[in-house]
Design goal:
Layout: H1 3-17, H2 19-40, H3 42-45, H4 54-93, H5 98-138, H6 151-178, H7 181-185, H8 199-222, H9 225-255, H10 258-261, H11 266-279, H12 281-315, E1 320-324, H13 332-341, E2 344-354, H14 359-364, E3 380-383, H15 384-394, E4 405-410, H16 415-421, E5 425-427, E6 430-438, E7 455-459, H17 461-465, E8 469-478, H18 484-497, E9 506-510, H19 511-549, H20 552-564, H21 569-585, H22 589-604, H23 617-647
Length: 656
């Protein structure tokens, strides 16, 4: 058998034995190709001038991803060398030279990577179409499905993989050449040893690591750069200290408590896991550190995406909105341009008025979370007829004003608070009382020109008209979204004819422009964060799974002995599930406890009315954790299915 044929046979067996690794490499290649497709897509770059920085961000993210994949390939290559060292040593014993064996190992691993590229490209084409569809949806542009391969993206992906595999395999090749026959044959017996042996050292390190974990989490919650760096350092020290002391302490804890050790089936689970936990402290710590980065990165991406989306929706609900502090403003210059260049479906010019009582504003500003966002010394009023017309323009349901009542339209975050403090409004001899709350988007984020800042009181026309005018507004719904040229033309008019006084400046809001900015910010910020989080998750989960599946033969022998001793197949399956549950939970539980408060803190760092409803910090935090657990559980399920199929004989497998 030639060296090439032997390499090909071993590559096939290697891909079969390490199917999880092979599948992870395929997914990695697909993601690299898909994001490289965004890098070279003219259609994506032409969506907005703001997307010019996307290639830079994608390139930096891809470099980080290449490093992650390189670590996975390097780790797996060393792991394969460890598991197959006896086989390689045997090749030398039967007459092959070291350079031939190293070349054999080099070729078979290179074949695995090359074979993964082909399905990776095919899957990457589909993922790129999905990314393209999501990006176009952000810009509210219809998507049409089309299959095509981007040669520059494929070439760059191939270059990345060639670089990754050559660097990993060259190191492995050099290592084999330097190893003696004895070292190769007995290399698979080497393992990570327990670094901490005495119980006193374990207890001290365990207590100290917990203190570092709490301190690091609190430092991350403070939000400053200095505290964030210190917090990250404390978290890293916590994870290594926790796993080194915990994994070293588990066997000792059971040895001192024989009643726990021999209770039920605990001994079987203990004996299998103790060997792994005692010798995998560093690996578990690294995996747990990666999972912490995954959850925080993914949470930050979700928060940023929600912020951009909600801010855009809350900034303007009209296609075109112009506000002015000048009470007598009639917008002649804007209206002339609009009439000539912009087809308008419906429009309204109206005024906002000043209430004679600042009671609601004063009570809201006593809340420290809201104080920075309310600077009016008065409550803002709107005529009911204007309110009805604006709701009709926006397609909102009709809002009826009952006699003796007034309507409050506010952002959702203020509804409960205002409902407890809303006062009566004196209208001549009568008093108006609150008659209804509405919380649809209504341009209530602006400092000086919106429909109130946070809220507006809708009153009968005659009452509002008796009060001073605060500012005037022109709002319109257009036949189609305004183009960038139209926005720039209006913006030029704003700069030319705006009142020079700072207190009387005008405001121009174009919905299409704001939506475009939010979409570009989401693509540039959230996409790379999700990209990195996904790659870290599948890499770390793949390493854990490869480690577990490498024990297949040893577990098969152990479980066969248990069957001969008369253990029920259902009990064996139950033991296997418990072992895998503990094994996969170990590196995931600390990151979840650390990331939940951190993600929540990131979500609450913005103004309190931005993230509400399905985008509230608790919902985003829960969604990020569930998404991580869903992807992570796929690898755990793959390991369980593979082990059950290979360990339990067909005649002994229970029907589940």
């Amino acid at each position: 058998m030639t060296l090439f044929k032997l390499s090909l046979r071993n590559a096939r067996r290697q891909a079969r034995d390490y199917l999880v690794y092979f599948a992870t490499v395929i997914i990695s290649a697909a993601l690299l190709y898909a994001f490289n497709g965004l890098l070279f897509s003219d259609e994506i770059r032409e969506l907005s001038s703001l997307m010019e920085s996307l290639p830079i961000v994608i390139t930096l993210s891809s470099i980080a991803v290449v490093c992650i994949i390189g670590w996975l390939v390097h780790y797996t290559t060393n792991f394969m060398l460890l598991r197959r060292s006896r086989e390689l040593g045997t090749y030398i014993l039967i007459g092959l030279e070291h350079r031939q064996v190293s070349r054999l190992f080099f070729l078979e691993n290179l074949m695995v990577g090359g074979c993964a590229l082909i399905p990776g490209f095919l899957l990457g084409i589909l993922i790129f179409q999905a990314l393209k569809a999501v990006t176009l949806a952000l810009f509210q542009i219809p998507y049409r499905f089309s299959l095509s391969i981007c040669l520059p993206a494929a070439g760059l992906t191939f270059f990345y993989f060639l670089l990754i595999y050559l660097s990993a395999q060259v190191r492995g090749k050099k290592r084999i050449r330097k190893m003696k026959i004895y070292d190769l044959i007995y290399f698979d017996r080497q393992n990570e040893t327990a670094l901490i042996r005495t119980g006193k050292e374990r207890r001290k390190l365990f207590a100290g690591s917990l203190l570092l974990g709490v301190t690091g989490t609190l430092l991350l919650l403070m939000g400053s750069l200095e505290s964030g760096i210190a917090g990250c350092a404390c978290i890293i020290l916590f994870l290594f200290g926790f796993f080194l002391s915990f994994s070293s302490g588990v066997p000792a804890w059971f040895e001192k408590r024989p009643e726990k050790k021999y209770k039920g089936r605990a001994l079987l689970i203990f004996r299998t896991l103790s060997a792994k936990l005692t010798t995998m402290g560093v690996v578990m710590a690294v995996i747990s550190m990666l999972f912490t980065a995954v959850l925080i990165t993914q949470g930050a991406g979700a928060v940023f995406a929600a912020i951009y989306k909600n801010r855009a929706a809350q900034t303007t609900c009209f296609d075109l909105f112009i506000g002015s502090r000048a009470p007598e403003q009639t917008f002649p210059h804007y209206l002339d341009y609009i009439q000539e260049h912009i087809p308008v479906k419906d429009s309204l010019q109206y005024s906002l008025y000043q209430s004679d009582s600042p009671e609601i504003t004063q009570n809201i500003t006593t809340d420290t979370d809201m104080e920075a966002f309310f600077h009016y010394p008065y409550d803002t009023l709107m005529r009911y007829s204007d309110y009805v017309a604006l709701r009709r323009m926006l397609g909102y349901p009709e809002a009826r004003l009952q006699p003796g009542k007034y309507i409050i339209h506010c952002i959702p975050a203020l509804k409960e608070q205002i409902s407890h403090i809303a006062p009566g409004i004196t209208d001549g001899e009568d008093t108006l009382t609150p008659g209804g709350f509405y919380t649809e988007h209504f341009i209530q984020r602006l400092w000086g020109h919106g429909n109130g800042h946070g809220f507006v009181l809708v009153v009968p026309d005659e009452y509002a008209e008796a009060r001073p005018v605060v500012h005037t507004v022109y709002a319109a719904m257009t036949e189609k979204p305004l183009s960038e040229e139209q926005y720039l033309a209006l913006d030029d008019l704003l700069g030319t004819y705006c009142t020079p006084k700072l207190s009387d400046y005008d405001t121009l809001l174009v919905k299409s422009q704001i939506t475009e900015e939010a979409a570009a910010e989401t693509a540039i910020t959230a996409f790379p964060l999700y990209y990195l989080a996904l790659m870290l998750t599948i890499t770390a989960a793949a390493i854990l799974t490869i480690q577990q599946l490498s024990e297949t033969e040893r577990l098969r022998q152990q479980f066969r002995l248990l069957f001969k001793l008369g253990l029920d197949p259902y009990e064996v399956t139950k033991i296997l599930r418990r072992q895998l549950a503990i094994y996969y939970a170990m590196p995931a539980v600390p990151p979840i406890f650390i990331s939940i408060p951190v993600i929540y803190r990131i979500g609450t760092a913005v103004e309190p009315w931005t993230l509400t409803g399905t985008s509230s910090p608790p919902v985003l935090t829960g969604a990020c954790v569930l998404l991580f657990l869903l992807l992570y559980s796929i690898y755990a399920l793959m390991a369980y299915t593979s082990l059950k199929r290979n360990i339990l004989p067909v005649t002994e497998r229970p029907v589940l």
